[in-house]
């Protein structure tokens, strides 16, 4: 085996380590913590593990770029440019005396997005070993959610068994781990039946986990993925419309058999205290933007009381930062859609990039902060797809049989060596 091949395999293993440590690892750590099996030896887990992983991930990514300059694509450069701009804003405001808690949160947010980007970028998500580990993780996480749910909701804190309850993750941390793992697995799932089973499993799990944003993101992903994979797009669209009409017409009967759950607040957000609070925070952000439209008003809020949407980018990084983060997501997605969504060949790399972009924009528009780690995952998926299309010609399609192999060039190319060629 060549040194390049050995190095490539090593980087893929490091990428997998990063992915499974950050997402399924987070879920399992907090499950053990919540059940009182372990103390909070790693605190809240994500920050210390990210700091431990960062040097290894950066070293391996840099090594890959040194070996193959084409590996550093336009999406990589755009993403690193955005992080550099964000870090500059944080640094300048830190020197000016900004709230140190918000500064630290932003620095951690940069590290989190960077780690997720590199983990997704270097992992071979369509490899059999990755898919099996991702599917196994999903099954284990779903089993935990169903086993420890109380009155139709999963949350370990009320059990009272945690040794360090102050370090226990909220439902949002659990749902984040599940959604990232699901997205990485479903894009490369070839068979319709298995995808349907995974949709049902994931929807049930996130419903019981009471994560409204992630539940909505999952429902948003399903038609995007299925309309892409089907050859009969009009028929599939009709099926989705029929299902929606059936659900709407029988909504009361369906709700009567479901356990009471905050997910149901999605049907009427006016009764949601969380949604009402977010409306007030959005109004505060709009007021800050109106007063400081160009440069924003960095850290002008109390820690945690930020606008739960992409307007938070405008408040903290100014109009340029707001346009920057939206630009790196939306600008690549437009040609990606027209060139890839209706192409005859099907690609797991494509639908991962496009579906991640769709749910990232959805969540940034409705509920997530601008340091959302989905941004890193989306940019990595963009870069992986582009690199695969332009440079990795040795890779076979993720569906269907591999290309036929021939022991001799003349069998593969009958005209090779003929006169006049």
Automatic annotation (TrEMBL):
The keyword Transmembrane helix is annotated on this UniProt entry: yes
Top-rank lineage group of the source organism: Bacteria
Transmembrane segments: 12-33, 45-65, 77-96, 102-120, 132-157, 169-189, 196-222, 234-251, 281-299, 319-338, 350-370
UniProt keyword GTP-binding present: no
Keywords assigned by UniProt, alphabetized: Membrane, Transmembrane, Transmembrane helix
Region annotated Disordered, chain positions: 398-421
Name listed for the protein in its UniProt record: O-antigen ligase domain-containing protein
Organism field: Massilia atriviolacea
Taxonomic lineage: Bacteria, Pseudomonadati, Pseudomonadota, Betaproteobacteria, Burkholderiales
């Amino acid at each position: 085996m060549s040194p390049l091949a050995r190095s490539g395999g090593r980087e893929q293993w490091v990428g997998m380590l990063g992915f499974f440590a950050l997402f399924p690892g987070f879920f399992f750590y907090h499950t053990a913590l919540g059940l009182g099996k372990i103390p909070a030896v790693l605190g809240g887990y994500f920050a210390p593990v990210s700091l431990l992983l960062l040097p290894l991930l950066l070293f391996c990514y840099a090594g890959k770029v040194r070996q193959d300059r084409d590996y550093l694509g336009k999406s990589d450069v755009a993403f690193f440019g955005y992080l550099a701009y964000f870090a500059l804003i944080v640094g300048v405001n830190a020197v000016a005396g900004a709230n140190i808690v918000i500064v630290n949160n932003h620095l951690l947010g940069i590290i989190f997005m960077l780690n997720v980007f590199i983990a997704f970028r270097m992992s071979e998500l369509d490899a059999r070993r990755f898919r099996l580990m991702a599917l196994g993780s999903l099954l284990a996480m779903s089993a935990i959610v169903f086993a420890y749910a109380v009155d139709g909701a999963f949350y370990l804190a009320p059990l009272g068994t945690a040794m360090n309850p102050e370090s226990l993750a909220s439902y949002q941390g659990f749902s984040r781990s599940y959604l990232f793992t699901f997205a990485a697995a479903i894009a490369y799932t070839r068979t319709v039946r298995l995808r349907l089973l995974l949709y049902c499993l994931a929807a049930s799990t996130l419903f019981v986990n009471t994560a409204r944003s992630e539940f909505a993101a999952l429902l948003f992903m399903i038609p995007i993925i299925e309309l892409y994979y089907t050859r009969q797009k009009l028929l599939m669209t009709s099926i989705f419309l029929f299902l929606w009409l059936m659900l709407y017409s029988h909504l009361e009967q369906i709700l009567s058999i479901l356990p009471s759950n905050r997910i149901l607040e999605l049907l009427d957000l006016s009764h949601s205290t969380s949604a009402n609070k977010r409306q007030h925070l959005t109004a505060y952000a709009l007021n800050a933007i109106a007063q400081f439209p160009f440069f924003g008003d960095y850290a002008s809020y109390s820690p945690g009381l930020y606008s739960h949407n992409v307007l938070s980018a405008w408040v903290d990084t100014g109009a340029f930062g707001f346009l920057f983060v939206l630009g790196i997501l939306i600008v690549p997605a437009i040609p990606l859609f027209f060139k890839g969504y209706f192409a005859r060949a099907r690609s797991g790399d494509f639908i991962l990039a496009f579906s991640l972009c769709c749910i990232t924009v959805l969540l940034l528009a409705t509920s997530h902060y601008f340091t959302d780690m989905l941004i890193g995952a989306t940019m990595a998926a963009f870069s992986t797809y582009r690199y695969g299309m332009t440079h990795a010609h040795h890779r076979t399609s993720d569906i269907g049989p591999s290309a036929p192999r021939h022991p001799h060039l003349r069998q593969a190319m009958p005209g090779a060596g003929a006169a006049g060629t």
